[in-house]
Amino acid sequence: MTTPAHGSAPRHHLLSVLVENKAGVLARVAGLFSRRGFNIFSLAVAPTHDERFSRISIVVDVESSPLEQVVAQLDKLINVVDIGELHPDAAREAELLLVTVSADAGARAQVIQLVGVYGGRIVDVGHDGLTVMLAGTPEVLDDFEELMAPYGIVGLQRTGRIALPKLDRGASAPARIADIA
């Protein structure tokens, strides 16, 4: 994914959707996007620290539909508790990448060095390859993926973006999930 030029409107928007942690909620959210023809660039979901709720991070392609329409449709779903758009300047974003690359004896040291530079971890080693795990911003993962390509990517999986709002260091404590429900 490429980042838009500074000052231009972002093509993708990150929505943070707090939902009840119940069976079928993700299917209803995904179904809404499918029925309305909204394009999801990435989607990640997991329970929060409060087992009653899950957070869904959805990166939406706003060229396919206006953002306001996406939010309005999500807000109509019964199990949706809260919806927020996270602007990249006001959020901490992360993504996880697992990549297996070809790395014979001659290339292995170079790959290991790049993994170290990017703060990744080697999670599996074979005779002719390495599997690396790396967490970071989408842009960092894009850069790392580009550097691994010449070695030969055997397999690659990315989680999609997750994010939370940046903390306001001068204000009172942020709202807790218990305060919302």
Report on this structure:
The chain has 181 residues and is of the alpha+beta class. The protein contains five helices and nine strands; from the N terminus they run E-H-E-E-H-E-E-H-E-E-H-E-E-H. It has helices at 25-36, 67-75, 105-117, 138-148, 177-180; strands spanning 12-20, 39-47, 53-61, 80-86, 91-102, 121-125, 129-136, 153-158, 162-165. The strands form two sheets. Strands 5, 6, 7, 8 and 9 form a five-stranded antiparallel sheet that branches.
CATH topology of the largest domain: Alpha-Beta Plaits
Q: Tell me the name of the CATH class of the largest domain.
A: Alpha Beta
Compute the number of helices: 5
Q: Strand-residue fraction?
A: 35-45%
Q: What characterizes the major β-sheet?
A: 5 strands, antiparallel
User: What string gives the helices and strands in order?
Assistant: EHEEHEEHEEHEEH
Contiguous runs where pLDDT drops below 50 for at least 5 residues: 1-7
Query: How many runs of DSSP E, i.e. beta strands?
Result: 9
Report the C-alpha radius of gyration, rounded.
19 Å
CATH homology superfamily name of the largest domain: ACT domain
Helix content: 25-40%
CATH architecture of the largest domain: 2-Layer Sandwich
> What's the average pLDDT?
87
Overall geometry comes to elongated
Number of discrete domains: 2
* Alpha carbon gap, first and last residue: 35 Å
| Structural class computed from helices and strand pairing | alpha+beta
